[in-house]
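thread from #wetlab-drylab

HS: before we spend reagent money on co-crystallization trials with 4'-phosphopantetheine, can we at least see a predicted complex? here's what I'd submit
DV: go for it
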Amino acid sequence: MARALYPGSFDPVTNGHLDIIGRGARIFDEVVASVVRNPQKEPLFSIEERAEMLASACADLPNVRVESFSGLLVEHARRMGAQVIIKGLRAVSDFENEFLQAHTNRFLDSGIDTLFIPTDVAYAFLSSSAIREVVQLGGSVTGLVPPGVEERLRARLLGE
Ligand code: PNS
């Protein structure tokens, strides 16, 4: 079975992430969307909240499951039986860092490859941090995040 891992912070999940997950799910038998617990980052939402929002956004994709992990990505990929790591690329500026990560991961486990998927142009400007900032400053992110996520952001950031 060809299984791919799609890792990220998902703080919160955006329609850009969902675009990549949906396209990955058409290529692979199974995509494991994996929320990272990164001790160096202070996320807005807990890992459980991020995984719950991601799982609900992926509910209609039968070959996508949601997991969370901490530690090395390649170890998580091995545990999940994934041969491929999927990464979305929005712009050339993403490439440099992603390229370094792909090489590092391949150094750590040469049996796991990274597949870059260019994000849909409609979401090329989208990032979780920009979404958080727009909501924090009172703007609308309707159409950029899955249903329910904007409400969760407004509740957390604006106390609504
Ligand atoms: O959504 P993000 O924050 O850009 O995702 C970053 C992520 C989760 C892909 C990256 O931080 C990661 O792979 N973390 C796991 C730690 C690891 O394996 N590091 C070594 C490879 S660079």
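DV: The longest helix spans residues 92-108.
HS: ok that's useful, forwarding to the group
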